[in-house]
Amino acid sequence: MAQELSEKELLKMEVEQLRKEVKNPRSPISKTGKEIKDYVEAEAGNDPLLKGIPEDKNPFKEKGGCTLS
């Protein structure tokens, strides 16, 4: 699609996108970083990567072994 557009049309699209982005509300990283940290710490107890998955609920656990007779 980009090949079909002229350079002028591409620049217009870029300007339109920049106009949209400049309207986005901004927050200082000092505030946002603290909010992210608090959220991560609050949800850490529910994170299976941190606390692990119980053996009975692990979908990847082998269901049985191979037996040879």
TrEMBL record:
<feature type="compositionally biased region" description="Basic and acidic residues">
    <location>
        <begin position="53"/>
        <end position="69"/>
    </location>
</feature>
<dbReference type="GO" id="GO:0005834">
    <property type="term" value="C:heterotrimeric G-protein complex"/>
</dbReference>
<feature type="domain" description="G protein gamma">
    <location>
        <begin position="1"/>
        <end position="69"/>
    </location>
</feature>
<comment type="subunit">
    <text>G proteins are composed of 3 units, alpha, beta and gamma.</text>
</comment>
<keyword id="KW-0636">Prenylation</keyword>
<dbReference type="InterPro" id="IPR001770">
    <property type="entry name" value="G-protein_gamma"/>
</dbReference>
<comment type="subunit">
    <text>G proteins are composed of 3 units; alpha, beta and gamma.</text>
</comment>
<keyword id="KW-0488">Methylation</keyword>
<comment type="function">
    <text>Guanine nucleotide-binding proteins (G proteins) are involved as a modulator or transducer in various transmembrane signaling systems. The beta and gamma chains are required for the GTPase activity, for replacement of GDP by GTP, and for G protein-effector interaction.</text>
</comment>
<dbReference type="InterPro" id="IPR036284">
    <property type="entry name" value="GGL_sf"/>
</dbReference>
<keyword id="KW-0472">Membrane</keyword>
<dbReference type="GO" id="GO:0003924">
    <property type="term" value="F:GTPase activity"/>
</dbReference>
<feature type="region of interest" description="Disordered">
    <location>
        <begin position="47"/>
        <end position="69"/>
    </location>
</feature>
<keyword id="KW-1003">Cell membrane</keyword>
<dbReference type="InterPro" id="IPR015898">
    <property type="entry name" value="G-protein_gamma-like_dom"/>
</dbReference>
<dbReference type="GO" id="GO:0007186">
    <property type="term" value="P:G protein-coupled receptor signaling pathway"/>
</dbReference>
<keyword id="KW-0449">Lipoprotein</keyword>
<protein>
    <recommendedName>
        <fullName>Guanine nucleotide-binding protein subunit gamma</fullName>
    </recommendedName>
</protein>
<comment type="similarity">
    <text>Belongs to the G protein gamma family.</text>
</comment>
<dbReference type="GO" id="GO:0031681">
    <property type="term" value="F:G-protein beta-subunit binding"/>
</dbReference>
<keyword id="KW-0807">Transducer</keyword>
<dbReference type="Pfam" id="PF00631">
    <property type="entry name" value="G-gamma"/>
</dbReference>
